[in-house]
Every structure is written in structure tokens, then in C-alpha cells.
Amino acid sequence: MGTEPTNDSKLFDDLPDGAITLLQLSDSHIYADQDRCLVGINTQDSLDQVIALARQQLSTPDLLLATGDLVHDASAAGYQRIAERLSAFGCPVYCLPGNHDVPKVMQEHLNRPPLYCLPSLQRGNWSIIFLDSTIPGKPGGHLDDAQLELLSETLNRHPKHHTLITMHHHPVPVGSAWMDTMALVNPEPLFHLLEQHSQVRAVLFGHIHQEFDTKHRGIRLIGTPSTCIQFIAGQDKFGIDSKPPGYRAMVLLESGEIRTEVRLLQALPLGLDLSSGGY
Ligand SMILES: [Fe+2]
């Protein structure tokens, strides 16, 4: 697998004062067994290659976001290896659960400094809110009353902070029927709240294993590829895309502007089964 695209990104060059740099890693689906593969690829190797690429671009971001499904089997051994890998960035790492996570087990391993499972953080004039959109034992997403209350309360408490909202699941359909059966089932109360708070700059998520950036009801929605397999966008049936693993880099500017780009490895992981009918 290639990891050496020349670092021609200008994203982190000449940043103005107050800019916050962050990297998002999502859906690495590693296993307790380091040799185990998903759709033909070793997900641990793939994650390690993506981390190497990310660190070439920016070795120490201000913060790292891990947006769920980092461990496929919710195993302690998997979480432990994730904790080691993410701690190496030397910055705070904020983790939220995906449908493959068991939040209690995840928190045992990913909620000790420099790793945190928190409801929100405020840094500079930005607020980042971390929502748990999981439904135990189900692949789809839901924001329960407690999460909606947390969101509402945090938005009300920090009305002057530009706000980035993060969760695992996609809050609107992305145009793939099979994937959209696993979207957030109750987007209405979410968007209702967001429309009432003009400080919200974007909602950021994983889960869809593809790049996504659109606006819905005036809110920017940003989805991020996986560090392992990608799904074919805009196709109703499950399909593995021929795009390599990757991550998202982002800058939050004091003005409220978000600059962001996805960076992918140069080559497909060894063994990827492009004809796979499911995972
Ligand atoms: Fe997921």
C-alpha cells in the first residue's frame, strides 16, 4: 500500500492567530486479532498507513477527532491498540461511539488522558459538541432525549462560540438506499434545534465510508471516508469503492470559517475485495 503522496496540501500553511487545527479519523474497524481482515484488507495496517500519512501532513494537530467504529468487534484489545496509536499524536483526542462500539467498553479505554469521551469542549471561540447517536445492538442512529437536551443546553450556554457538532451517523440520506437505512432516524428535532442557533457552522460525521459535503436546511453537513474500506457513493446496493483509505484534515478559523480537505493513501490496500457483496 502506498503512503507517500507528496505533501502538497496548503491547508495548514500560514494560519492566522486563533485557528484550530484538527484531524478526523473514522471507521477504522480494527479487530482484537491484528491479522484479521475486513473485505480482504488488514484494517490495522490500513489505519497505521493512514496515521503515517496524517502525521506527514501535521504531526501534532491541536486536536484529534475519532468519530466511531474505530474497533469492529468492540474488543478491549482493539480499543487498547487504538488508544496507543491515537495517544502518539501528542494532542488531546476526542472519541465518540459508532454502531460497532460498546460505549461502556470504549470509555474504559478511550477516556483517559490524552483521550477523552466528553459531551463537549470549548477552545478559543469554538465549541465542539460530541453526540452519541448509537442504538445498542443496531446499525442505525438515533438521538435520544438526553442527547438532544445536551445539544440544546450546550448551544444555549455558548451562544457566541462558533459550533461544530460531531456524531457517528449521517443525519440526512446520502443517496445510497442500503446505507440510508442506517441513517439517523430522527433528524427533525436535530435540525429544528440547529435552525434556532445561528452559531452552528457544521455537523461532522463518519459511518458512510465516503466523502460528503453538502448543505441541508442551511446547515453544512460533512462526512468523512474510512481509514479502511470505502463504499460506492450514490449507489443503492452495497458496493466497495476503488478509493483508498483516508482521513479528514480541518481548520477552524476565528471568523467561523471551516477549511477542510480529505486526504487518501495513494494506493488501494493489498487484498481489497472489490466484488464483495457485504461486510
Ligand atoms: Fe458505522
Automatic annotation (TrEMBL):
One of its GO terms (molecular function) is metal ion binding. Keywords: Hydrolase, Iron, Metal-binding. Its EC number is 3.1.4.17. CDD domains: MPP_GpdQ. The keyword Nuclease does not apply. It comes from the Bacteria. InterPro entries: Calcineurin-like_PHP, CNP_phosphodiesterase-III, GpdQ/CpdA-like, Metallo-depent_PP-like. Pfam families: Metallophos. Coiled coil: none annotated. Residues 21-210 form the Calcineurin-like phosphoesterase domain. Belongs to the cyclic nucleotide phosphodiesterase class-III family. This is 3',5'-cyclic-nucleotide phosphodiesterase.
